[in-house]
């Protein structure tokens, strides 16, 4: 009898070990409904035992942790938030900036140069004393109906500004002075208009009369 009791006690002790317990639990017998809330803690989870294919969460915010340095492959449709309303959104429509409480949406470089916009318009600030626009063919600057067109094949064209009429070219004469022409620049100043010629002739006539008066005054002395 004593030997039988001893054998039973030994069997119970063996069955009580984790290995024996696991061996006697059929696959799928323990479901989430049979686990008390908080019963499984980090101490019961072996390091590295939860792999990516075992995670099913709709948002990473479900994982409460500092992600540290993240090496990403493809990020699709992203909003990066840096404060109250300060965010950068990258999606199929492009890159959108929201300034939040600062009031200015801007892209800023480490040297302090920036491109920003607010309700008053777009502003470009350069700390290198140079703002350069490069284009293979043409650069256009539009302000309302006014337009400035620059390309390497023709002089700069200015059009639809008040006082300039339709399309004009900004030209430089042989002396380097700038003038406006309604036709392509030829390197020399444009021919004066009939009104300008008449005004010059009148001025020359007046000068001639003054010279003649001076000569007559000298002859009488």
Compact summary:
By secondary structure, this protein is an alpha+beta fold. The chain is 21% helix and 26% strand.
> How many DSSP E strands?
11
Q: How would a crystallographer describe the biggest sheet?
A: 5 strands, antiparallel
* SSE succession: HHEEEEEEEEEEEH
Work out the helix count: 3
Strands ordered across the widest β-sheet: 7-8-9-10-11
What is the helix content? 10-25%
Which range does the strand content fall in? 25-35%
Cα distance spanning the termini:
168 Å
- Extract low-pLDDT stretches: none
What is the general shape? Answer: rod-shaped
Question: What is the structural class?
Answer: alpha+beta
Please compute the radius of gyration using only Cα atoms. Answer: 43 Å
Mean pLDDT across the residues is: 75
Question: How is the topology of this model organized?
Answer:
Layout: H1 2-15, H2 18-23, E1 78-81, E2 86-91, E3 94-99, E4 105-108, E5 114-118, E6 121-125, E7 138-143, E8 146-151, E9 154-159, E10 167-172, E11 178-181, H3 194-219
Antiparallel strand pairs: 1-2, 2-3, 4-5, 5-6, 7-8, 8-9, 9-10, 10-11
């Amino acid at each position: 009898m004593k030997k039988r009791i001893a054998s039973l006690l030994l069997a119970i002790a063996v069955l009580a070990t984790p290995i024996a317990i696991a061996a006697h639990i059929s696959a799928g017998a323990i479901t989430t409904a049979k686990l008390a809330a908080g019963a499984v803690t980090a101490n019961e989870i072996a390091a590295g035992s939860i792999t990516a294919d075992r995670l099913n969460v709709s948002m990473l915010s479900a994982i409460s942790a500092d992600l540290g340095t993240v090496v990403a492959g493809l990020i699709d449709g992203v909003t990066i938030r840096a404060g109250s309303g300060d965010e950068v959104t990258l999606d199929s429509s492009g890159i959108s900036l929201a300034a939040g409480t600062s009031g200015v949406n801007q892209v800023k470089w480490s040297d302090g140069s920036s491109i920003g916009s607010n309700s008053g318009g777009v502003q470009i600030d350069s700390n290198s004393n140079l703002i350069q626009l490069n284009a293979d063919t043409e650069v256009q600057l539009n302000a309302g109906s006014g337009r400035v067109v620059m390309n390497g094949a023709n002089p700069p064209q200015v059009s639809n500004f008040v006082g300039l009429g339709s399309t004009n070219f900004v030209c430089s004469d042989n002396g380097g002075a700038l003038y406006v022409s309604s036709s392509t620049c030829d390197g020399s100043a444009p021919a004066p208009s009939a009104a300008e010629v008449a005004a010059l002739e009148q001025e020359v006539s007046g000068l001639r009369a003054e010279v003649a008066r001076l000569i007559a005054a000298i002859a009488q002395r």
